């Protein structure tokens, strides 16, 4: 049986949309109290499993996680990768609607695979590729200023234009500094919707793994900043902390070199997705018999450790949400290979040394990847 799309009561699609409604003093999915100024903190890569395993280094976060007055965990959605997850958060729509379906995705109009974080160009304008209005655009149109607080290098990126458009960008190089900027925004505005991005945990986990001392140091830094920020929230202010996905460590010995397994690339023109969730696209010249043989080869080789499904099966199972727009459908792989064991797939002909050195991984549907925190502060803590 395929894993269900909705493994939790709430998902990232509910988070910023609920904050937006809260600032409008409207009912919302998360039952947040009405506030005038709201903040969502996104700790990239902070899964609940890793947080619990390092609970002694994050006492403030754990205190919130153990609060039994409201749900404190949600699902990240599919695939568990930053590009897709943040688009879901900031639009309130699933990948089948907003159109960012993986770390890399197939651009059918130009017969290429494009990195959805860094590969934007004139052939794929971010404002048109990401198909939904952002909640920041809606907020500003409604008269509520919207702000993004992040590292300066993201201010003018294509990905920012795709998923954060509508918000005013404010920069700070440090975790602590970003929380200080957010506090300044709240002080300067009667009403505000604020998104604060913390990429450091994810960056360190990719290089060293979440079980490393370096990851713990970043977790402690985040915990301290959250504690101080939360204590300073005032009446009419609420904040949530969540993540885009979780993480698990995959040693080099658990890499699967799929290009070295006979039959797996027959009739395949493009490989998109990420190491824990491949999205394979057929060569248009591959006939049905060849496609059937290649699919059978993948199932025979990998079904014991991964879900090997067709696009039609994934869409029917709701992996990309209950609705998949016609223009999004070609972006999804004809065949998807989603790891269920602690493995990662690499094509040794094309994978860079830096990619193969990555320790912390995500992209598939294990609980370590999908279960993320939803921690409440300020007026939201009493919701």
From TrEMBL:
Gene3D superfamilies per record: Alkaline Phosphatase, subunit A
Record PANTHER family: BIS(5'-ADENOSYL)-TRIPHOSPHATASE, ECTONUCLEOTIDE PYROPHOSPHATASE/PHOSPHODIESTERASE
Source species of the chain: Homoserinimonas aerilata
GO molecular function annotation: hydrolase activity
The protein's name: Type I phosphodiesterase/nucleotide pyrophosphatase
Origin: domain of life: Bacteria
